[in-house]
Amino acid sequence: MSLRPSPDRLAAFAAECRRRGVALTVQRRAVYAELADRRDHPTADQVHDALRERLPGMSRATVYRVLETLVEQGFARKVHHPGAVARFDPMTTRHHHLVCDRCGRLVDLEDGAVSAVRLPEAGRRGFEIRDYSISFTGLCRDCR
Ligand SMILES: [Zn+2]
Ligand SMILES: [Zn+2]
User: Fold this and answer.
1) Cα–Cα distance between 115 and 139 in angstroms, integer?
2) Helix ranges (DSSP H) in the chain
3) Is the confidence at residue 1, as pLDDT, over 80?
4) Prediction pTM value
């Protein structure tokens, strides 16, 4: 199910890094390319496992750090689920997720009706909503 990241996407990433003065290290390029290639929302450990053969010198801590940088810079998103380890998402436009509570499979869901949800009036509680993403949990095809 993996889509090769298009050379355009990697070129756009490189150009954006240059524009912002973010050093495009070998590690950052490799981690971004791996993440952009996947639709399964991998954990940092899974990204590290996937890159271990190609870049044996890259430590787990480096992968964690690079992923955090990609998130800070808006090149990726972190998907949180209470009680679960953070997973990373190369799709940065608004979308939602279907999460299997048995195997943890996390599938993208783009549905205009879901995105049209009315945001709550959180301002009165002193809270500023900056973003949101909705997760529907249940059982995936394989687990049903
Ligand atoms: Zn499942
Ligand atoms: Zn996603």
Assistant:
1) 22
2) 7-20, 26-36, 44-51, 60-72, 112-115
3) no
4) 0.85
